[in-house]
Amino acid sequence: MPADDATPWLDPDQTPLIRFDGVTKQFGSFTAIDDIDLSIYRKEFFALLGPSGCGKTTLMRMLAGFETPSAGTITIGGQDMANIPPNRREVNMMFQSYALFPHLSIYDNIAFGLKRSSMPKEQIGARVDEMLRLTRLEQFARRKPHQISGGQRQRVALARSLAKAPKLLLLDEPLGALDKKLRQDTQFELMDIQEKTETTFVIVTHDQEEAMTVASRVAVMDHGKIIQVDTPPRIYENPNSVYVADFIGDVNLIHGNARSLPDGLASLAWAEGAPEIMGTAGEGLSASAPATFAIRPEKVAISVERPTDRTNVVQGKVHDIAYLGNISTYHVQLPTGQIVKAQTANNRRLSRRSLTWEDEVYLSWTDTAGLVLAG
Amino acid sequence: MNLARRTLIGIPYLWLVLLFLVPFGIILKISLSDIALAIPPYTPTLDLSQGWSGIRDFIAGLDWENYIFLTEDDLYWRAYLSSLRIALISTLLALLVGFPIAYGMANAAPEWRPTLMMLVILPFWTSFLIRVYAWIGILSNEGFLNQFLLWTGIISDPLMIMNTSTAVYIGIVYTYLPFMILPIYATLERLDASLLEAAEDLGCSRASAFWLVTVPLSKSGVIAGCFLVFIPALGEFVIPSLLGGSSTLMIGKVLWEEFFNNRDWPVASAVAIILLLILVIPIILFQKNQERQAEAEA
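Output (structure tokens, whole complex):
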């Protein structure tokens, strides 16, 4: 992939906007952030993804200035952020609870930050109007926060945090309080606004779909460490660990012992007497060590006849069928007792369902469809 | 509307009629009567055995004489004004003392809050009268405060606090402080900490975040606390008579003296009716504030 404006992290000449250097944060004896190095570039939409308690919120609060690192340095735009309080940072945050001031109108909420800045009065009005237009809130300017809907409040919070045109906008679970339909619409709105304003966005979320949808790059975190930083497709297709493979999306995991093969392939001995599974070798895989084969259900084909054109074929019995409308997921039990999921798209309406419970079926996949990961 | 609902709504109204309107009517009637050396000590009394002529005589016997008397003797309006002044200043002092305490409580570690709350409520476990008497022991010329200050050498002569309006202020602020602290604490405790972070994030210093966010958002608690102190302080009788001596003029004390020293029930009733009318205004304002707050939270 060539480095260009859309992928600044691949260009060694680019200087990152934000740099974490060996940052650690401890609360008493609890280590919330464990020696993190991370670079985030200008105009990126960067997602911090992880389960609750993984440290993603702490990382964001350190960028906002509400927490100071116990060790290491954070620089924003080349400036060391130690001892710079939140009100002197060109960083604004959109809070999970929105934190709208209940005693102020929507207009005054958005103007709040501008009134604290050196901006002349007559420009403040124009800027607030611009923000109201951007978030389609013009007709609600005079209302109080409790007089508008949840989705509108979310947009007020966004408008307020963007009003001062910060170098960096932090979004803490920005869509967490919205229902699913509204959340999906708002994700695209967020991306539009990010492109229009050319602001660097850092979003914290525990929702992997949300992270995959909006972000240019995703950092998957666990126990205060960053496990993998990559683009959404690479995170999904090339997870560097069993943890990431399991955390993002649906995956079948088969444990066994790995053996390296030429051309970046590897094979996994997983059950006595069964043929070895072939797959792409993952990062840091060492020969004849415990390993895990990871394959996404949609890459596993299911058929009644034994396929002849695929490297990996296993036989099993249909244990369960989950019909999800657009796709169906078959849970197939192998003779070893292991359940492997296979997904097929229901791309024909009212097609005859040839498979049913307890049917003997074959599962198959190509030799590059899955990954053999260390551990 | 069915009977069950009418009954349900009727109960509080019945309560109001029995315990407020009926006594109010009786006092209003006495205030329109004349003093008499009799039991009860006023005239006319309703004599229903006389039939219609009895009722006519009764109504003819009522007049506004006592209210006119109140405007003629300057003792009464001076007492009203002095009560208003003392109640206002005490409310202000209670706010100045109570707000920092409530703020400290709301910002204390959560495990400490029930204990602090207990400390605020604890004085209510002792009789109000005993607590006011205790202040006599503290404030009098030979009291603990003067003894302590003389012992430390800060003063060479005892301070004259007892029987001055200062003692009354101390007594009222001390007694009604919990009524100031609790509503303010309730609003401050509910205050979302992320609002202050948002204010800082948008460029406020800690101090300006306090003025722009904490203070306006605790307004309803401050208003509620002020009324809860002002309303009882205006009619206060025990504190000025025990701590204020003869020099402190308060309408509650005048009322007591009219009833029990002069046995002039009609004038005392007129004083009470006027006091009630003065209090109706702040009580209505207080209700308005509570309604607005309930609306904002809905």
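Chain A touches chain B through 24 residues (CB under 8 Å).
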